[in-house]
Design brief:
This protein has 233 residues and is an all-alpha fold. The protein has a single domain, classed as MetI-like (MetI-like fold), CATH 1.10.3720.10. 79% of the residues lie in helices and 0% in strands. It is built from eleven helices and no strands. Helix 1 packs antiparallel against helix 8 and helix 3 packs across helix 5. The chain is globular, with a radius of gyration of 20 Å.
Length: 233
């Protein structure tokens, strides 16, 4: 099957990348939101240590992060062994491994965007709702999240764009299996290594740029809309 100007293997890589990035964002967004709220609202012993661990994927070489994930989720790793024996779920060398790698790498960016939004909102609105007798969980879902929704959207878009371009951690935990784990960055790397792969790599580079630029443009449009809404209040 061939459509547009990509062949079947290239479409597989594009679709797999979109699938991996979407799953990574959907799985990361809830814990990223909770952690961002916790860091923005609470002071506790060891907060600096938590922030350091959170930001490690941003400064570590991606292959190091991938190696740690491989140790953790491998068939002999304590988490990978539990998932395999109890749930029959394998992470290593599957598309799930690529999603895990993307989620871990993108997670700090998502937390940071959401935390900035939470820090910028008026916490007195939450206190007022609590004073009126609302349960903290209800306040979180009816006051906090709506006011910070633009940060959530920005975090999701940043996480998606970062997941699309993830390479180092993915190749460590998921490998580069055609049609199964070979995302766009892995496809480009493989194509460059083959004598006749320059044209295929160039096409995939263009697609990658279009997808990433599209995500960033959507994020900018939403941010401008949010600024207009705040100015009208």
């Amino acid at each position: 099957m061939q459509g547009f100007w990509l062949d079947a293997s290239e479409w597989q890589a594009v679709c797999l990348s979109l699938r991996v990035a979407t799953v990574a964002v959907l799985c990361s967004l809830p814990p990223a939101t909770l952690l961002a709220w916790w860091l923005a609202r609470k002071d506790f012993p060891g907060k600096s240590a938590v922030e350091t661990v959170l930001n490690l994927p941003l400064v570590l070489p991606p292959v190091v992060t991938g190696y740690l994930l491989l140790v953790l989720f491998g068939t002999q790793g304590w988490l990978g062994r539990v998932l395999d024996q109890w749930l029959g779920v394998r992470i290593v060398f599957t598309w799930r491994g690529a999603a895990v790698a993307s989620a871990v790498i993108a997670f700090p960016l998502m937390v940071r965007a959401i935390r900035v939004a939470l820090a910028g909102m008026d916490a007195r609105l939450e206190q007022a709702a609590l004073t009126l007798g609302a349960h903290p969980i209800r306040v979180f879902f009816t006051v906090t999240l709506p006011l910070a929704r633009h940060g959530l959207i920005a975090g999701a878009i940043l996480g998606f764009a970062r997941s699309i371009g993830e390479f180092g951690a993915t190749i460590m935990i998921a490998g580069s299996i055609p049609g199964q784990t070979r995302t766009m960055p892995l496809y480009i790397f493989t194509a460059i290594e083959s004598p006749d792969g320059i044209a295929r790599a160039q096409r995939m580079v263009i697609v990658s740029i279009l997808i990433a630029a599209g995500a960033l443009i959507v994020g900018e449009i939403l941010e401008r809309r949010a600024r207009r809404q705040r100015a009208m209040r």
